[in-house]
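ARCHIVE RECORD
Type: protein–small molecule complex
Small molecule: pyridoxal-5'-phosphate
Source of inputs: curated submission
Record status: active
Notes field left blank by submitter.
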Amino acid sequence: MTQIAQQLAEVYTRIAQAEQRFGRPKGSVSLVAASKTCPVSAIRAAVACGQRAFGENYLQEALPKIKELETEGLEWHFIGPIQSNKTRDIATHFDWVHSVARLKIAQRLSQQRPPELAPLNVCLQVNISGESSKSGTTAQELAELATAVVEMPRLSLRGLMTLPALNSDLEAQRRPFRTLHQLWEGLRQKGLTLDSLSMGMTDDLEAAIAEGATLVRVGTAIFGSRPRKDR
Ligand SMILES: *Cc1c(COP(=O)(O)O)cnc(C)c1O
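STRUCTURE (tokenized, with ligand):
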């Protein structure tokens, strides 16, 4: 077994154990392998183990990887900050975008999603901890953004995403995830059909699963530590 195969198996086990520990249905949490800075060979090693969903943060880096792996039929998730001039390529080459935080970006993605493709799956990124360094809409602005995005013809609003500040304590890790889940429930009560909560990474995936994550985005635990700190 390669090291990536072994580490990926450990992440699947962590997810399954957290589902069990926190009373989540088996298989209710899926894994997006965050492959930023990883070479295609590392992605291939994960694909060989059955991993299908990959998350990328940087468009210039992602496009050649997506092209090289075209025949594998993988599912690509854009999880990084989005600049307006990148929306056309994101709308064309990705299946999901987790980091939509502004109306203008959502409008461009909807307008630029090629007609022959299914609507682009979108999560709205919420800045729970209110840190100015992290992108995301505020909890106050969320409902307005969500009700606009749900009307956009070429987007399929699937849920919410957050990227909270690092914290090593399980209880403290759970708090922002609980808040995101509550915001998600609030939108569902307004009649929006959301099915996805994208939260949890290498260091806090258990806390996120405890609070209802349906998608965890994990990089380091699968591929090893990255050359520079990317979060
Ligand atoms: C890098 C990244 C991840 C994965 O982080 P790890 O700590 O390496 O698991 C998840 N989500 C986003 C948005 C990221 O940029």
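CURATOR ANNOTATION: The CA atoms of residues 125 and 183 lie 12 Å apart.
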